Amino acid sequence: MQPIQWSKWMSVGIDALDEDHRVLVAIVNKLADEDNRRDPAIVESILDELIDYTKRHFAAEEAEMRERAYPTYTAHKALHDSLTEQVESYRRRFQLERDAIGGEEVFEFCAGWLSKHILREDTRFGEYAVKPAPARA
């Protein structure tokens, strides 16, 4: 499996958030390692680490959005809540069906939701956040 490669297209232009995204990519990329994918205990540990770090990151990102008066903050926060629930639900499913869910599937799931969220949603916030504030009359 090929790990996720960080690219300039994933940057939101806010250093702290970009660093968080790099850490999230690194966590998911642990599942690109075949030995890690074969061990259900390691897969579960990586899922736990991903969930914990994601919650911290989402809280920081949401604070940044509130501070900058991001107009679609409420919708973005709802998306964060939904994504968190999806990953937690996936972890519960994995715990119940370890023999049926392989590490490859877990990697694909995590890589997919992370990449889509950063590329589709977070980059929109980045575009908003780096625009100069409109001049006041």
TrEMBL record:
InterPro entries in the cross-refs: Haemerythrin_Fe_BS, Hemerythrin, Hemerythrin-like, Hemerythrin-like_sf, Hemerythrin_metal-bd
Transferase in keyword set: no
Domain (Hemerythrin-like): residue spans on this chain: 13-125
Family matches, as Gene3D superfamilies: Hemerythrin-like
Pfam families with a match to the protein in the record: Hemerythrin (PF01814)
Keywords tagged on the record: Iron, Metal-binding, Oxygen transport, Transport
Range of residues in the leader sequence: none
Key word Metal-binding present: yes
Annotated family: Belongs to the hemerythrin family.
Entry-linked PANTHER family: BACTERIOHEMERYTHRIN
Protein name: Hemerythrin family protein
Biological source species: Azospirillum oleiclasticum
